[in-house]
Specification:
The protein has a domain at 1-38 and 283-405. The chain has one helix spanning 8-19; strands spanning 31-38, 48-56, 65-75, 78-87, 98-99, 106-107, 114-126, 131-142, 145-146, 156-161, 171-172, 183-185, 192-193, 199-206, 213-221, 226-231, 244-251, 254-260, 266-271, 281-282, 299-303, 306-311, 328-334, 339-340, 346-349, 368-374, 377-383, 395-401. The relative contact order is 0.14. The longest helix is centred in the N-terminal third of the chain and has 12 residues, at 8-19. The chain contains one helix and 28 strands. The strands form six sheets. Strands 6, 7, 8, 9, 10 and 11 form a six-stranded antiparallel sheet that branches. The chain is globular. By secondary structure, it is mostly beta strands. The chain starts with 7 loop residues before the first helix and ends with a strand.
Length: 405
């Protein structure tokens, strides 16, 4: 199932052509083409949200597969069952979405009427075990809606998909540390698989709802069970809920964290070992001007010798859009300064509509994911959301392609 978005392919090419003027070589700038994978601007179908994909390599009996998880959205933090679909032709066609039963809602013992669901699922292929490890977090509902007054302790939930497509039972990633007694979560976060099969991931955690910290953890995974082996030093922010939705990447000989915050900024930190971090730094342009961000996740895109950040920010054209969550941008990181190169900024997904006079008509794009598909292509996937228009929106794919070397 695939739908063309009128004009998007040409827009992507024009963005790429225009951007060549500020890069030293054409190889540094991707062309961008955009597609609609599932339509629901008219409200006739499902608004798919949290679309996150990974590549499952080919085997003797199976072609290379793009595997994606997603779930419907019907309101703020109100998500439907987690589904998956897959493509064996680089995303040209997709299978029908199927529910992942391991992530279905379940009754909570001793809390009549309360249901435990799963959201924010990120699937990643784990080469040593030839499995897909899908990690999300628990979320609580009463009836169809988010249980605002009944959110118990939040923690990671995971399930494992085998090569034959079967799923394990639902499991909890246990962390018996009082610092995470209210919440510990890797929700929506990028993670790193090390050479020995260990997994580095980042937790946002706290003993209360405010002032959460972030730390990275080295985890063991044997294809069935995920367990914590080592916890790194925490990063802190005493503003709002603190540091949220951390994403981790490894680039060259260093590890990088990008962090959502609620003080009008975003943050990054750098580490030699992925566990012990230098002082966090505000995301800024090369000239020292900080980016204006509004409590929204950012993610990493790595390609060749370049590291990019994908993000939303305040701009003249989106000043009245909720949390400035459209358009979606990307820019290269100056690795010496740990700052963004303003001249490299590109629009990954343009804002559709008037973000000043008619912001309710603008679809939000603040929950997105990055997938390295090949050495010459990366994907950005996002589920649009029109919160004041019956939660309508399309499921979008941007293909970022670099010239082959």
């Amino acid at each position: 199932m695939k739908h063309a978005f009128p004009g998007w392919t040409m827009v992507g090419l024009l963005v790429a052509i225009d951007s060549l003027s500020y890069c030293t070589t054409a190889q540094e700038t991707p062309s961008i083409t955009r597609e609609i994978l599932s339509q629901n601007r008219d409200g006739s179908s499902i608004t798919w949200f949290h679309p996150k994909a990974c590549v499952v390599p080919a085997s003797d009996s199976m072609a290379e597969t793009l595997f994606m998880t997603m779930q419907g959205i019907d309101g703020s933090d109100t998500f439907g069952p987690v589904h998956s679909w897959s493509s064996v032709d680089q995303g040209s066609t997709w299978s029908q979405p199927e529910p992942i039963h391991a992530f279905n809602r379940r009754e909570v013992p001793n809390h009549p009427g309360l249901m435990a669901g799963v959201c924010d699922v990120v699937p990643e292929y784990h080469p040593p075990t030839d499995t897909v490890l899908a990690i999300g977090q628990v979320v609580f509902y009463r009836g169809p809606r988010f249980a605002t007054k009944d959110q118990l302790a939040r923690y990671p939930i995971y399930a494992v998909r085998s090569r034959d497509g079967s799923w394990s039972k639902r499991q909890v990633l246990h962390w018996d540390d009082p610092r995470g007694s209210f919440i510990y979560s890797n929700n929506c976060g990028q993670r790193v698989v090390l050479e020995n099969g260990d997994i580095l991931l980042a937790f946002s955690f706290g003993s209360t709802s405010d002032h959460r910290s972030v730390a990275t953890l080295r985890c063991r995974f044997n294809g069935e069970t995920l367990s914590i082996a080592q916890v790194g030093t925490p990063l802190e922010l005493k503003a709002g809920r603190g540091l949220l939705e951390p994403s981790l990447t490894r680039f060259e000989d260093r590890f990088y964290l990008t962090l959502r915050a609620e003080d009008g900024r975003g943050y990054l930190a750098v580490s030699q070992d992925g566990l012990h971090w230098n002082r966090k730094e505000t995301w800024k342009w090369e000239d020292g001007q900080p980016l204006d961000l509004s409590s929204t996740q950012q993610h990493w895109l790595t390609h060749g010798e370049e590291l990019f950040l994908v993000y939303t920010r305040k701009a003249m054209e989106n000043q009245n859009v909720i949390r400035w969550r459209a358009p979606l941008w990307m820019a290269r990181v100056n690795l010496e300064q740990h700052r963004l190169i303003r001249s490299s900024e590109q629009v990954v997904f343009p804002m559709i509509g008037d973000g000043v006079s008619q912001p309710d008509e603008v679809a939000l794009m603040g929950n997105f994911h990055i997938t390295p598909v090949s050495k010459n292509e990366s994907w950005v996937t996002v589920g649009e959301w029109l919160p004041r228009k019956d939660a309508r929106g399309n499921l979008l794919l941007a293909r970022l392609r670099w010239p082959a070397k």
